[in-house]
Amino acid sequence: MERRSEQMNITTFMLPAGYHKDSWRLPGSRAEELGYLDFVLELTLMAEAAKLDAVFFGDIVTADTILRNDVKMNGLYEPVTVLAALAARTTKIGLIGTISTTFSEPYNTARQILGIDHMSGGRAGWNIVTSSRGNSNFGLEEMPDPADRYRRATEYLDVVTKLWDSWDADAVVTDRESGVWADTEKLHRIDHRGEFFTVQGPLNMRPSLQGRPILVQAGSSGPGIDLGSSFADCIYTAQPDKRLAQEYYANYKRIVTEKGRNPAQVKILPGLVPIMGDTVAEAQELADHLAAQVNMEFGVRQLEASHRIDLTGVDLDDRVPVERFPAKLATSRSEIFRRRAFDDGLTLRELIIEDARGTGHGFFIGTPGQAAEYMIDWFDDRACDGFNVNAPFMPGGMQMMCERLIPELQERGYFREDYSGDTLRDHLGLDDPAPVIARS
Ligand SMILES: Cc1cc2nc3c(=O)[nH]c(=O)nc-3n(C[C@H](O)[C@H](O)[C@H](O)COP(=O)(O)O)c2cc1C
């Protein structure tokens, strides 16, 4: 295995309740403050001090998860507003937020993400999702089927990127003498007419300091990969198994190349939940302690909902009978769930704990040094270009990641000691997509 010349890209999934389900029950969790600024700001400043590429906020537009007592998944932050607040209190770290293409309009989204970009000096990213639920809050009887959602998302991305490019980089002239602030010849209508949207343009905002905000995508299905490989700069993915991650990586880079894009310019970042201690025994003790927080009754209901499966009457210490799985699995994560249940023979209790730890993502139990070696092995072996690290509990898990794990990677030369640029595009090592205006 050859050492790669570049360094890892690392973002963190910002879930202030802690990524491990029910870890907010621990006495030091500050769960009283979920949804407010100060706590999430402190966590973000920790990530910035560790020189991470970005903090990432997921989003769903329904209270379904909180109604099942799944506090973590709800997030409790609306991405655009929290990122705008964080933009004002941070200077370097990238700010990635989720907006669903199914429940919004491209002109609004183009402005919101570009607004965060401007407020932060070129540090915004948009995580594009098509949402698997939320219809009842938007006047829809049912969710549109995935193919329709992705068709809409593809046209949506086309519109948003055209709007972001609707001002030439040098359109703002600020000519006091003539009274011309923007050279209107350099603002272009997009005149988009499509299946879902009719948008004249141009955008009513000056262009991005990083050329364009960063696009992030996490689809794993055929249409999801098609969208991501066409537009995205970063790909999030749930990959608990190294060999499968390598296959996914090779396949994704091949598709990107076939589309005429440079595969090195599309960063693949699987999730990872590091559960760490000074010794392996301490890390295992922490993992057991976190597992002991999990409410099994809620866990059953959450698994039923995530995988659309009926678990009534299944004993926690039994395996899930094969006939309980629907012929057509609910999501790509359900595939992993089924594999763990059948190929690996986990009991329902073990499945609930595994779901609580990783929710489909890989997790690691060991010392910070071992976690760093594990990450390096995946990186050098081309299973990824870095990671989206999910702190298992807050604030301690974030602190451990930033103050113990990252230094182990830095010592080995696999992660930056300081930021070398000001924009998220700089941190990710991505080329400018179009001529950019002077960064002074
Ligand atoms: C790290 C990660 C973060 C995600 N964040 C969100 C999110 O915030 N909101 C959401 O609706 N879906 C989110 N998803 C789900 C994806 O958008 C996507 O629906 C899922 O990976 C299944 O892929 P598919 O839509 O191609 O079937 C996330 C997935 C991953 C791996």
From TrEMBL:
It is an enzyme of class 1 (oxidoreductase). The keyword Acetylation does not apply. Its EC number is 1.14.-.-. Belongs to the NtaA/SnaA/DszA monooxygenase family. The lineage of its organism: Bacteria, Bacillati, Actinomycetota, Actinomycetes, Micrococcales. SUPFAM superfamilies: Bacterial luciferase-like (SSF51679). One of its GO terms (molecular function) is monooxygenase activity. InterPro entries: Diverse_substr_monoxygenases (IPR051260), Luciferase-like_dom (IPR011251), Luciferase-like_sf (IPR036661), NTA_MOA (IPR016215). The keyword Transferase does not apply. Keywords: Flavoprotein, FMN, Monooxygenase, Oxidoreductase. Pfam families: Bac_luciferase. Residues 35-377 form the Luciferase-like domain. This is NtaA/DmoA family FMN-dependent monooxygenase. It comes from the Bacteria.
